[in-house]
Amino acid sequence: MSDIGLPGARIRSFIERVEHLDTEIQELNEQKKEVFAEAKGEGFDVKILKEILKLRKEDQDKRDERDSLLDAYMRALDSAPPAEIGKAA
């Protein structure tokens, strides 16, 4: 195959940088697992901790709007008469 003039050293630099970042990400994910394991060992519910992390990433206004809608839907559901078995809405 002939050399088509691609800057091989520059390509290698990009590839090696990405590989290095992948290694760092893997190490950070392992550290994250260790933190969750530590929290679980102290009796905390990891599922709830993950949910809190997810909520903290959300925009406050969007979260407030979703919570308001969820509350309104739940109140509507609670005030509706029970459906008869076998009959769908």
TrEMBL record:
Keyword Coiled coil: yes
Pfam families: GapR_DNA-bd
GO molecular function: DNA binding
Keywords assigned by UniProt, alphabetized: Coiled coil
Domain GapR-like DNA-binding: residue ranges: 10-78
Coiled coil stretches, renumbered: 11-38
Superkingdom: Bacteria
Protein name (database record): DUF2312 domain-containing protein
Organism: Alsobacter soli
